[in-house]
Amino acid sequence: MELIKKNIHMDRIKCKASTQITMEDDINITDSRPDVYQLIEEQGEVVIDEIRAVQDHVYVKGKLEFSVLYLSDDDVRRPASMQGSIPFDEQIYMEGVAPTDSVSIKKDLEDLSVGMINSRKLSVQSLIRLGLYVEELYDEEAAVELSSAEPVEFRQKTINLASLAIQKKDIFRIREEMELPGGYPNIFEIFWQNCRLGETEFRISEGKLSLQGEIQLFFLYEGEGENRPVMWYEAVIPFSGVLDCQGLRERMVDDIACQIGHKEIEVKADADGEERIIGLEIVLDLDMKIYEEEQTEILSDVYGVTKEIEAVSGVGNLKQLLMKNTGKTKIAGHFKVAAGLPKMQQLCHSECEIQLAETKIVEEGLRITGAAAIKSLYGTGDPEVPYDSISGTIPFSYVLEIPGISPDCTYKLDAVPEGLSVTMIDADEVDVKAVLVFHGIVFNHYEEPMIQEVKVTDLDPDKLSSLPGIVAYIAREGDSLWKIADRYRKGSRMTTQEYVKQLQRMNRLTGDTIHAGAHLTIVYYK
User: E strands along 73-120, which residues?
Assistant: First the structure.
């Protein structure tokens, strides 16, 4: 007698850890850049250079790369910028990690503040959060059929699974060229640039992964000409494409993390030799997990006809997709120019960043709390301070509905702003509206009894003869008519299925289900 088994391929978190890094440093303005008169705004990015695991610890080496937009301390206050970096090297305790493990990392720049010490020196402070985790693949063996020379009966049950079909990393390249519209002067120097990835959508087909989205580009530049006009240009660049991915099939479920890995903006000459072409090259890093939902029939019990059969069960740790859901919430607010700052004349560019404070499993789903940080660059019309920025935060609380969620579930959450609208009410105040989009995928983890082996022995005649002919039986928790029938039909020539039908007739039952405490009359055949 042989169990036929099927391997179920799944993934799980082996271990995880998180830490906060506070960084502070004084940075000198490089000799090639003008003196600072007033700071306007800053932006930063966390770059990881090396991750190395040892037993129960992970070493992370990286840097904070930052850019600062400021007004020069010249006779004419013109925008200028400088870039810099601050390195960090951290040892993080992570129980259970081994030197052979591949450690993944999620990095968030939670706060960045730049202050002016003097015209040639800046103070940079930042707070970085690192989330580290190790995922491992594992197989569960499930008995699905039985091969036997002996007459035998068995029952099956259906289990729902989310098996990991594909796990890989890939890249998608975006190359675009744009020409400045008429009326814009040629580009002499770009002062400041901002390039962000907007909403990205994925679609699975046979052997193909289609993606489409948009890149949001803004830059502030100095135009050619005697007056050296300061201009800005903003564009939304759509992209789409297809990646080959062997093994993909329709109806699979994607869990894909997408971010900008490399970006390069280059000013090129057009056919007339004028600097009016903006070349954009971006590499998107894709961390792909593709799951396949399946229903699998596994053995739940085995019954002997001429032999005594004992099914030995163990516990399997299984994973099923509970739900993949997307939800949206609207936010709105008003911001005022801080006292002492110049009035607004024209808005140049606005951006929104979602700061998640807490994500908690509640009865209805995932409760997400945080704030949307809004920042707007504006022109003032004041020659002494021609540009400045206004910023503020709008708190939010939202529940992404996930019916059936429980504290044992695991999830991944992504938050993206869309439809940001910032308009001037007057020279002192702006009106802000935006939509926050939340993408969540939730998995349920559960234990399932699984037959691991069967033991076959001859029927015991002494045990059979000692049993009474008629039994008054009270059903216990976990009983089924199949189990009771197999226990009491040993001396008869009936199969378990035939005996189940007899039990139903004798006890006026219409189905196979019985409840704990139910009274049954059983005829035992010696």
Answer: 79-93, 104-118
